[in-house]
Amino acid sequence: MIMFRHTVGVLLIASILAGCSNGQEGDIRALLLMQQNAWNAGDLETFMQGYMNSDSIRFVGSHGEIRGWQTTLERYQRGYPTRDEMGTLSFDLHEIRILGREHAMIFGSYTVQRRADRLSGLFTLIAQDTSNGWRIIHDHTSATDQNP
User: Fold this and answer.
1) pTM greater than 0.85
2) Each residue of 48-84: pLDDT tens digit?
3) Residue 44, C-beta contacts closer than 8 angstroms, at least 6 positions apart
4) Distances (CA, A) of 71 to 36, 54, 59, 125
5) Is the dihedral of CA 90, 87, 126, 139 positive or negative?
């Protein structure tokens, strides 16, 4: 009887933890969907709401490392100054790994389809669960394909 209770208790705890993980993954997927929709609407300000509004966030891309929410926004504004330059963004999430109660690693690929070309690449994000929901605190994005 004691073994049965122990087994049931372990299974109950495991199912609760799995439920938390699935809920967290759903929230993270919603975050990236919000960003994708904002980008495709030409709304960089809303897209940036996916990042923690902090001077400590880090973005690493083909032009090196930058720090801070405002600096990241300005980088996007310089790189994509018009709606045509922004194109249509799509994400493909390959893995969401929950790293504890407050952090997750997201690995995926992106494509930006524009009239003249297509940009694509890979990204690894670290997100933190904050009082405002999940927010990206580290973004490492690498271009893998640029077809004119």
Assistant:
1) no
2) 999 999 999 999 998 899 999 999 999 999 999 999 9
3) 38, 73, 76, 77, 80
4) 20, 10, 9, 17
5) positive
